[in-house]
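Appendix B. One record, verbatim.
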Amino acid sequence: MSIFDAIKKGVLEQFNSSVTVEMILISVAIAFVISLFIVFIYKKTFSGVVYNKSTVLTIVIISMVTAMVIRTINSNLSLSLGMVGALSIVRFRTAIKEPVDTAFLFWAITAGIMTGAGLYVISIVGSLFLGILYYVLYLLDVKAKSQYLLVVAYREEGATAVESIIKTIKKKKLKSKSLSGNLMELTYEIEYDPVIDEVMKKLQKTAGVRNVNLVTYTSEYGL
């Protein structure tokens, strides 16, 4: 037997199994259950500004579709080549703003691949481990104080009083400073605690202060 024949035989042996309706249904059902667990972790740890229901539906659908595709192409070489050719012309251009959403979608795809390949136990155990580990990390991160932006706009006559009040904030970082005519605007990154409320009241009562705002801080990655 030549090397070419040996390679050809080895490749064909990988695609000699037949796919049945029962096998597809089992793979899709298990992928559905795992995707529900992924959605549960996603909802429990969601910390974005606006909750998007379409992301949850996408996680469920993409896991089941991936399981069906992998189960199908795992049974026939011609089907696998045809499926690869069909998927190669598809372009996904939906922008995902939250990096965490991308991680959950990748998790759903991975679970679908393992389920479609028949690795049910590995898929279930792996998803449980990842979910519990991520949830624990989320709880540890929640204990940290939230980051906010303190925005103070004031006129020149209130500069000295504003600076003295802001100095009472222990942990702060100047993010921006702008001047428009006689109006100065300062933006500080701070950690929120009950003392900040008192600081805002003092600033509001200070002569020359036009407005004081406290907004949720969002980094460039949306975290």
